[in-house]
């Protein structure tokens, strides 16, 4: 493993020219989470891209049953784009490990940690990494206490969902009941409140994609609406993205290094994304890690890869390369 002087990149994956080296590749998509539709969009793009490069691909709309039988279908490796519960939280990763099938992205522990925003924040804080103050909400009454602690606005969200499902920027007491219901959802999700980060003149929502240990150019997001919610991510054409983000070179390098550290502290590998915000003083704050990022037309990792000179199909190929062991790799 060669580490760059900036500590923002290392490269260990093998470079593959012959698509036959991958064997038969299953693209796992769909699934049973609240992010099912986004996953289907991601999967369709990955399947088309890999087939276009000659890879033997089978598209699988994942269920709790068919992921247990992938070996029976002679699957050699998996490109996992199952977003949210089941596919991103370590569950499918454990199933694939038991079947001895290599897969894209992180393993069981890192996936579970990143999906649980409470525990990932606690780990980052223990590592001395900047992340906004938070409160674990056990009941609706705890939400009132959080409002008194943070003041308005502040954020209420589930600790174990992605794609901004159930997230509310609470600006007044009148929104508390609705925010609580949205976060808890029908299945009684774990809920947290978080200090709102804002005030940066350039804009406060950013993300940093990572591929094989390398931090790609950061992206600045101008959401259509109050914040970068589900509508702004996947429905609206009015959300604007800036890549390069417009950060000066020193701050860009600083936040890239910070995101690499945050990613590594979770034990993550392969590829992913770390979201962060800038406050009024230009200080970065880590929000969350996404270890099965979107691969849709609106998605951020393909956008960052393009800024690095890598098109969508090349990105899919590079992610798939991370499933092959390199010399000195212990997996």
UniProtKB/TrEMBL annotation:
Cell wall formation. NCBIfam families: D_ala_D_alaTIGR, PRK01372.1. The gene is ddl. It is found in: Cytoplasm. Its EC number is 6.3.2.4. It comes from Sinimarinibacterium thermocellulolyticum. Gene3D superfamilies: 3.40.50.20, ATP-grasp fold, A domain (3.30.1490.20), ATP-grasp fold, B domain (3.30.470.20). PANTHER family: D-ALANINE--D-ALANINE LIGASE (PTHR23132), D-ALANINE--D-ALANINE LIGASE B (PTHR23132:SF23). This is D-alanine--D-alanine ligase.
């Amino acid at each position: 493993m060669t580490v760059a002087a900036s500590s923002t990149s290392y490269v260990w994956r093998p470079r593959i020219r012959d698509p036959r080296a991958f064997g038969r590749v299953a693209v796992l998509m769909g699934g049973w989470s609240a992010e099912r539709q986004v996953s289907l969009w991601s999967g369709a793009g990955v399947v088309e891209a890999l087939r276009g490069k000659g890879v033997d691909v089978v598209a699988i709309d994942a269920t709790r049953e068919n992921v247990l039988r992938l070996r029976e279908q002679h699957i050699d490796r998996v490109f996992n784009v199952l977003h949210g519960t089941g596919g991103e939280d370590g569950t499918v990763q454990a199933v694939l490990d038991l079947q001895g099938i290599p897969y894209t992205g992180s393993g069981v522990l890192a996936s579970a940690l990143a999906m649980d925003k409470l525990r990932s924040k606690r780990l980052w804080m223990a590592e001395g990494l900047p992340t906004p103050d938070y409160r674990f909400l056990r009941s609706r009454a705890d939400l009132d206490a959080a409002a008194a602690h943070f003041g308005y606005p502040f954020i209420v969200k589930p600790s174990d969902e992605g794609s901004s499902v159930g997230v509310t920027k609470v600006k007044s007491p009148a929104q508390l009941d609705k925010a609580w219901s949205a976060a808890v959802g029908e299945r009684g999700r774990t809920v947290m409140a978080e200090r709102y980060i804002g005030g940066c003149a350039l804009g406060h929502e950013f993300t940093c994609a990572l591929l094989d240990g390398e931090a790609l150019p950061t992206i600045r997001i101008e959401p259509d609406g109050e914040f970068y919610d589900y509508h702004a991510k996947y429905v609206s054409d009015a959300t604007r993205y800036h890549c390069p983000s417009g950060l000066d070179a020193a701050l860009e390098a600083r936040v890239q290094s910070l995101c690499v550290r945050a990613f590594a502290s979770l034990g993550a590998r392969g590829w992913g994304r770390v979201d962060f915000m800038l406050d009024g003083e230009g200080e970065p704050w880590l929000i969350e890690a996404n270890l099965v990022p979107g691969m849709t037309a609106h998605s951020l990792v393909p956008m960052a890869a393009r800024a690095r000179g890598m098109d969508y199909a090349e990105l899919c190929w590079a992610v798939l390369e991370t499933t092959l062991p390199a010399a000195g790799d212990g997996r």
